[in-house]
């Protein structure tokens, strides 16, 4: 603690010394009658250069001391009111003072003189052997040590004082490489006046004394708060070295700034004090910029008595302390708490925008005062996460405002409050006290909270750094347990957990609460590599050892492989805990594990299956989808030709289920195909072989609903190109045998959009081929009605080679399709009537109503494999089909047709199709 009575007495003594200067020593007074040269005797009165037995008094004028050395007793520069004087030492100039009285620059007792000393150049120096230097005693004083100049103060207990009295202003500037002030005594910046010290561009100031229990005092030593001191150390190489205690803001405002690579070094056995007494002034230290350092000594105390102080560290600056930092420590014995507001800011202040963090190296931080001792963490993550290893104690406040902060110290004895308003606070050891998480705040880590937690924001044990934050609900890459030893209260807070979703023994993040729970918590679970599996008791996520009145509610989908997981409260001896289960009903009693229910399948499996089934089936055509051709005679050549262009449009609706019965899928499709003959041959003018090309576009949209209440949308659209060939044994009336074959290549875009999941996109492609044959024969005729009756038994075999690309979902599930290579056979019979009305006789107008029945068999089920679990479409192995329609020739050039088909299979499988077609014969 400073001894202020002694300081006051010294000021009185100083005034008396200055008043009696002329009587105690001989004095030479500058008149400057010849030049500004110090070494010109005629410039002095009485005509003699000052020496070791005399003092120099320079009231006014510019004095230059160069190219020589001078030893004097002492110096007064501009001592009287309205004096204005400057002494410049340069160019191998050296001035030494050997007297024991003080040296004053700028105003003696009661005067407002203005004085300035400049020492410039690396071969210029100012030395005081046994005295102190006052720059700004009562008036204005300025000291410049620049461009390598040197000033030495030897055996100077009071050392260098900038702005001693209330009316004074004292400024010292040490600028440039090699520029030096070396003080064997104290350094005071702003005694009772306004003092300023600037150390820039590689300058150095050393102070190695301890008068009145301090080596450096910035801001007030006599109780008047109207003055103050400001110290700026800026630039690489700029250094302030101190061997004793440091006081910044004693009875007046004290400020220090260390920036751009500068350094302040306090001896390891000394301590630093910021904001020591006065409560209504600003006291602050800013350490900013890469390489900037304040080595504050053994301890750093912020805020004694009722004073307020702020330490700000940002942009890569560093503050180091050997033992501890005390914030709001009250008195020397830390037995009383400070009534001032005292703050450490990492990054920005509480009210400013975030800044890049600085570094605080201290074994311990004590926040002594509730609400008034504050640690603000308000930084960006531009240079990585901020790690604070100090042990935090006391009952103050920790404010996490922005950025990612990791606490690694064992701070279980902290009894204050931690407020997480923004950014992320990661606790990887222990933290005591109350923790409050605001809406924009996040708590993570694998540590222990020794107090209560109130959660209105987000808890994520899996987050260990900002680098493993991928999205608002995806954190971390490993598995951690966060423990709360107190009570847990949630105000609709969120909990995000990583889990390897598989069986009961799956590794997972956990939240352990040893106290009671209340309120609602929304839980997200992120799957890290799990492929899904049946569970028994479930995967334990939340363990509650007290009263479990809180509710933990699943938010969003929790999926792995083919499974949907749900979050449920345990039963029996596990009734206070919460588990993930892949079964449809409640968890089982671990002592009586029966009635497990169904494994919950994801609806996306139905969407993937529906897409593949649609891409494989919707372009499958039959001969009568294109109809036969008519003949005509070319008018110019008389040559018989056959050619045509046809177009068919089909709309359909499909319903199916999976083999478990959990998934129900409905889909709607539209298909358009266009084709035409390009060549024909006959070897006996009776039969005919037709060759044609075709192309098509189709799309299908499906919706799958699961018993889990979730749903998924699927869509597929694509194109095909292909060729067909048809042989008729009798091309004239199409009776007898026919053989039809075709091959198509299709390519498709697929989408699956699961509820609350990312939309998935993938491709599919492949070849589909078919061969069909039938025999048409007449079974009757009614000439009166211009009608004949025909039967056509037929069979078709189709090979389906469309294959979906293997795909990995955003959640990590590997998906592949099943069912490509399916052989579909169709065996059936068609009965139709061929005729025309009386009024259409001779008009080439013919209509052909028909009914057709088929049995369709598929050798493979379409399905989906999700992380090794197969989900298949059910009921499509054997299908019965009934089709009704009419085909008509309006004239020799235009044919139209339409039909409605209905398919029925097992397990609710059905398909309804409506087709309309038109053909133009050239």
TrEMBL record:
Lineage: superkingdom: Bacteria
All residue ranges annotated as the Autotransporter domain in the record: 638-922
Endpoints of the signal sequence: 1-27
Keyword Mitochondrion among UniProt keywords: no
UniProt keyword list: Signal
PROSITE patterns tied to this protein: AUTOTRANSPORTER
Cross-referenced Pfam families: AC_1 (PF18883), Autotransporter (PF03797)
Keyword Nuclease included in the entry's annotation: no
Transmembrane segments: none
Cellular component, GO annotation: outer membrane
PANTHER family: ANTIGEN 43-RELATED (PTHR12338:SF5), AUTOTRANSPORTER (PTHR12338)
Identification of the protein by name: Autotransporter protein
Organism expressing this protein natively: Yersinia rohdei
């Amino acid at each position: 603690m400073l001894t202020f009575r002694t300081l006051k007495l010294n000021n009185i003594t100083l005034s008396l010394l200055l008043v009696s200067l002329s009587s105690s020593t001989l004095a030479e007074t500058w008149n400057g009658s010849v030049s500004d040269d110090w070494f010109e005797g005629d410039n002095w009165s009485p005509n003699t250069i000052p020496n070791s037995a005399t003092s120099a008094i320079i009231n006014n004028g510019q004095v230059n001391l160069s190219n020589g050395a001078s030893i004097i007793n002492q110096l007064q520069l501009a001592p009287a009111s309205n004096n204005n004087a400057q002494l410049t030492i340069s160019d191998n100039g050296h001035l030494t003072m050997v007297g024991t009285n003080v040296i004053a620059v700028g105003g003696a007792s009661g005067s407002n003189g203005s004085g300035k000393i400049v020492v410039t150049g690396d071969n210029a120096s100012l030395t005081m052997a046994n005295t102190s230097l006052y720059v700004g005693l009562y008036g204005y004083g300025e000291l410049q040590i620049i461009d390598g100049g040197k000033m030495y103060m030897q055996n100077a207990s009071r050392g260098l004082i900038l702005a001693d009295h209330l009316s004074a202003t004292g400024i010292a500037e040490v600028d440039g490489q090699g520029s030096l002030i070396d003080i064997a005594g104290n350094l005071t910046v702003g005694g009772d006046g306004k003092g300023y010290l600037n150390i820039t561009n590689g300058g150095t100031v050393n102070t190695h004394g301890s008068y009145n229990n301090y080596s450096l005092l910035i801001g007030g030593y006599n109780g008047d708060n109207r003055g103050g001191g400001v110290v700026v150390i800026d630039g690489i190489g700029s250094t302030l070295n101190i061997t004793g205690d440091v006081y910044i803001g004693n009875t007046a405002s004290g400020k220090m700034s260390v920036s751009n690579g500068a350094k302040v070094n306090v001896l390891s056995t000394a301590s630093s004090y910021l904001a020591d007494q006065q409560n209504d002034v600003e006291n602050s230290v800013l350490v900013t910029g890469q390489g900037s350092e304040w080595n504050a000594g053994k301890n750093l105390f912020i805020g004694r008595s009722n004073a307020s102080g702020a330490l700000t560290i940002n942009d890569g600056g560093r503050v180091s302390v050997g033992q501890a930092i005390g914030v709001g420590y009250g008195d020397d014995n830390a037995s009383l708490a400070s009534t001032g507001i005292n703050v450490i800011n990492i990054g920005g202040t509480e009210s400013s925008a975030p800044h890049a963090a600085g570094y605080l190296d201290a074994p311990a931080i004590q926040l002594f005062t509730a609400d008034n001792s504050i640690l603000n963490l308000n930084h960006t993550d531009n240079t990585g996460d901020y790690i604070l290893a100090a042990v935090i104690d006391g009952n103050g406040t920790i404010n996490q405002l922005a950025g990612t902060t990791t606490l690694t110290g064992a701070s279980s004895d902290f009894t204050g409050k931690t407020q997480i308003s923004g950014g992320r606070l990661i606790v990887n050891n222990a933290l005591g006290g109350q923790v409050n998480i605001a809406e924009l705040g996040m708590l993570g880590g694998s540590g222990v909270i020794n107090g209560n937690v109130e959660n209105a924001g987000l808890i994520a044990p899996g987050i260990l750094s900002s680098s493993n934050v991928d999205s608002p609900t995806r954190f971390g890459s490993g598995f951690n347990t966060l423990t709360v030893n107190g009570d847990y209260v949630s105000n609709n807070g969120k909990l995000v957990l990583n889990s390897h979703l598989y069986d009961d023994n799956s590794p997972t993040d956990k939240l352990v609460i040893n106290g009671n729970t209340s309120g609602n918590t929304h839980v997200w679970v992120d799957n890290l590599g799990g492929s899904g599996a049946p569970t028994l008791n479930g995967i334990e996520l939340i363990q509650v050892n007290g009263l479990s009145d809180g509710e933990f509610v699943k938010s969003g989908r929790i999926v792995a492989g083919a499974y949907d997981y749900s979050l449920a409260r345990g039963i029996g001896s596990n009734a206070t805990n919460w588990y993930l289960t892949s079964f449809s009903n409640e968890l089982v009693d671990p002592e009586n594990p029966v009635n497990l229910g169904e494994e919950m399948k994801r609806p996306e499996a139905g969407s993937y299956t529906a897409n593949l089934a649609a891409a494989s089936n919707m372009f499958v055509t039959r001969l009568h989808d294109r109809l036969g051709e008519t003949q005509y005679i070319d008018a110019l050549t008389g040559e018989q030709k056959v050619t045509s262009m046809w177009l068919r449009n089909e709309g359909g609706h499909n319903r199916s289920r999976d083999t478990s019965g959990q998934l129900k899928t409905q889909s709607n499709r539209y298909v358009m195909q266009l084709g035409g003959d390009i060549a024909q041959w006959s070897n006996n003018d009776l039969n005919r072989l037709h060759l044609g090309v075709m192309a098509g576009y189709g799309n299908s949209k499906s919706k799958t609903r699961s018993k889990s209440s979730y749903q998924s949308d699927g869509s597929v659209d694509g194109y095909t190109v292909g060729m067909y060939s048809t042989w008729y044994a009798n091309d004239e009336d199409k009776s007898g045998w026919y053989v039809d074959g075709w091959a198509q290549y299709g390519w498709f875009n697929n989408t699956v959009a699961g509820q609350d999941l990312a939309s998935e996109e993938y491709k599919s492609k492949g070849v589909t081929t078919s061969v069909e044959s039938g025999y048409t024969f007449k079974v009757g005729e009614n000439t009166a009605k211009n009608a004949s009756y025909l039967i056509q038994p037929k069979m078709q075999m189709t090979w389906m080679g469309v294959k979906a690309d293997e795909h990995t979902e955003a959640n990590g599930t590997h998906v592949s399709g099943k069912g490509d290579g399916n052989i579909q056979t169709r065996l059936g019979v068609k009965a139709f009537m061929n005729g025309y009305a009386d009024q259409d006789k001779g008009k080439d107008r013919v209509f052909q109503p028909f009914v057709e029945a088929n049995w369709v068999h598929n050798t493979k089920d379409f399905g989906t494999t999700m992380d090794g679990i197969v989900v298949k479409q059910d009921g499509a192995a054997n299908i019965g089909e009934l089709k009704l329609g009419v085909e008509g020739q309006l004239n020799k050039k235009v044919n139209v047709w339409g039909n409605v088909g209905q398919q029925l299979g097992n397990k609710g499988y059905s398909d309804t199709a409506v087709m309309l077609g038109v053909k133009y014969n050239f």
